[in-house]
Amino acid sequence: MPDDGGWFADDGFWTDYAPILFDAGAWDEAPDAVDSILKLVGARPGCAVLDICCGPGRHAAEFARRGCRVTGIDITEPYLDAARSTAAAEGFDIEYLRADAREFARPGAFDLAVNLFTSFGYFDDPADDERMARRAFESLAPGGVLVMELAGKETTARDFRDGEWFERDGRLILTEQAVVGAWEGIRHRWMVVDGNRRIDRTWFRRLYAGTELAALLRRAGFADVSLYGSFDGAPYGPEARTLVAVARVAPVATTPSGTVLTAPGA
């Protein structure tokens, strides 16, 4: 697995902030999100699902609960350990692998791939974002679908605040955000005061407008990309809650002469 020294490869970062990122509210949202995704893409019962950057497995467990065959990949071992424990406790047969999303591919193995909760745009080199999308494309069967959900450039600009503070579970959290370049991304700083312990981390997230993300996905090989403002299929417009991209691999087709056509780049 490549290690480019990126902050996202630091297990300590993710364990430090896990109580904030994955509080009870985040877990409570997962069932409705998974139901809406399956309905949005018209997934069949028992489909094979790849959860890219699966974290502690909150969506993977819900897909398994609905009869899907699930593989989750992440680079954060403590999250994978937590996900495996949840799966074991509930009797789910979920495959969890420590893998870099820029490198992992299982050609044609999945009907549906998901990358949720703004788990995209963290690499220093934007070409790595496209590599990640390409690996997802390669892992999907003909006619397969990738669903991505992230904070888009439009919604981030609309809702931008340069900082805030709040309390959660006895911790004081202070956040700072700064726009980088011409809205190329956001520089985040999160400070957490937990008793006598203080956590202070800074990181960068690249921003994608809807049209930019759609273009990236088409370059990665997807034949069709639709954009929505929620998992319910609302328009990606002024009232959008988030940016949801649904990217489809071309189905296998046969010409009148009998030549088999597959997805571009497959």
Q: If you had to describe this structure to a student in words, what would you say it looks like?
A:
With 266 residues, the protein is an alpha/beta fold. Helix content is 30%, strand content 31%. The protein has two domains: 7-152 and 207-261, Vaccinia Virus protein VP39 (Rossmann fold), CATH 3.40.50; 157-203, N-terminal domain of TfIIb (Single Sheet). It has helices at 11-21, 24-41, 58-65, 77-90, 126-139, 153-158, 210-219, and strands at residues 48-52, 69-74, 95-98, 110-115, 140-150, 163-168, 171-180, 185-194, 197-206, 224-228, 243-248, 253-254, 260-261. The strands form three sheets. A seven-stranded mixed β-sheet has the order 3-2-1-4-5-11-10, sandwiched between helices. It has a four-stranded antiparallel β-sheet with strand order 6-7-8-9, covered by helices on one side. Strands 12-13 form a two-stranded antiparallel ribbon. α2 packs across α3 (58-65). The two termini are 23 Å apart. Residues 254-261 have low confidence and may be disordered.
Radius of gyration: 19 Å
CATH superfamily of the largest domain: Vaccinia Virus protein VP39
**Total count of domains:** 2
Q: What is the terminal-to-terminal distance?
A: 23 Å
Report the strand count.
13
Structural class, from secondary structure content?
alpha/beta
Task: Please mark out the parts with pLDDT under 50 across 5 or more consecutive residues, or reply none.
Answer: 254-261
Annotated CATH topology of the largest domain = Rossmann fold
Strand coverage percent: 25-35%
